[in-house]
Amino acid sequence: MKIGLDESLCVGHGRCYELAPDVFGEDEQGHCRLLVEDLGEDLVAQARRGADNCPERAITVEEN
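-> structure tokens emitted (64 positions)
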């Protein structure tokens, strides 16, 4: 699985890194940053939770 982030859509709600701290972090402005791009099976559920809770739909989780 692969995760993507459209940084131009992120406004910094912080739901992603609150719900999936092993996958997402925050930058200096509180916007999302990816901690990993290729997801192991242990991180898929976290990544989907973060993506599903992004109001701007800035995060995608895709099959490789």
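The chain has a mean pLDDT of 95.
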